[in-house]
Amino acid sequence: MTNQGQKLTQTVLLYSLLLYGVGFVVFFALSTFLQLPYSLGNGWVLGGSLSVLNYLIIMFQAKRLQMRVEANIKTPYISQGYSFLRLALSAVGLLASVFVKLNDLEVFNLFTVFAAYLVISGVIFLTGAQFKIANPKP
Predict the structure, then answer these.
(1) Using CA atoms, how far apart are residues 39 and 110, in angstroms rounded to an integer?
(2) pLDDT tens-digit profile of 100-112?
(3) How far apart are CA 129 and CA 59, in angstroms?
(4) How far apart are CA 128 and CA 49, in angstroms?
(5) What 3-state class would DSSP assign to 102?
(6) Is 117 exposed, middle or buried (0-12, 13-18, 19+ CB in 10 A)?
(7) What does pTM read for this prediction?
(8) Which of 111, 75, 73 is nearest to 93 (CA)?
(9) Which H or E run includes 125?
């Protein structure tokens, strides 16, 4: 990964973690002062942690693929395992928000889990517009 690409990755991760922290504080404050359910904050934390984990798996997969290209390895590369792992993690978060209940009250809110999944995509869209990654000359 190039230096600027690595800087973009760290920037996306930092901004995302900041947004997850601010979102958690907001949901906790709303739950405390406005009597909203705590499942909003719990769903935000669950979705945010799974989203960050998925992002780190993508970066790990990209690093492994880059190492294969630089080593000029011609054998087939099976990357579907990582994609399935990311899909399974996202599904586990959504299924947990639907099925995990405590005394017939939801523990994780489905909508905040899904909204937390979208934060990293939004940060990539906004910060990616600021960086120009040059194509290396052969």
Answers:
(1) 9
(2) 888 877 888 889 9
(3) 19
(4) 22
(5) strand
(6) middle
(7) 0.81
(8) 111
(9) helix 110-128
